[in-house]
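Bug report

Summary: structure tokens for FUN14 domain containing 1 differ between web form and batch submission.
Environment: batch mode, default settings.
Steps: 1) Submit the sequence below via batch. 2) Compare with the web form result.

Sequence submitted:
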Amino acid sequence: MFQCKVRWLVTLLSLLNTYDVDAESEDELYEVVNITDYARRHQWWSLVFGNSTGPIAEKYSVASQIMMGGVTGWCTGYLFQRVGKIVATAVGGGFLLLQIANHSGYVQVDWRKVEKDVNKAKKHLKKKANKAAPELNSFIEESTEFVKRNIVISGGFVGGFLLGLAS
């Protein structure tokens, strides 16, 4: 697939008389071309593909990417912290109330039935986990590729997220 794209690009560049295709061997035919510099020098690229093509690294400076990632990460971390505290308080308070009710005699728990239901839920989850694994793997691969393509903004996001959790 990569060779097909390179051949397409070489053919396109030769039509525009900006690249000499009279190479002696196949190795010389596949020269590395920096498309970002080429697109900046030639106006037709923007007319054909638009100004918003390419990864985010081509559109904004490194400082802007770190700032955008940091701000969105901080907001996400701050909300995650606040919502996490509320959820932890609600769940912990619920368990505390159930324990007080159990100790006072208002609630009696059949622990054998609880253990039986938990074991049944474990078996059900194991069946479902095997079916969801391919979807989860593809999501993880897509996320990894996104982070690799946008490493600067992703790094800013992680830093901002950790600062948001700490604030």
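Above is the batch result. After comparison, the two runs are identical; trailing whitespace caused the diff. The first helix runs from residue 2 to 15. Confidence is low (pLDDT under 50) at residues 17-21.
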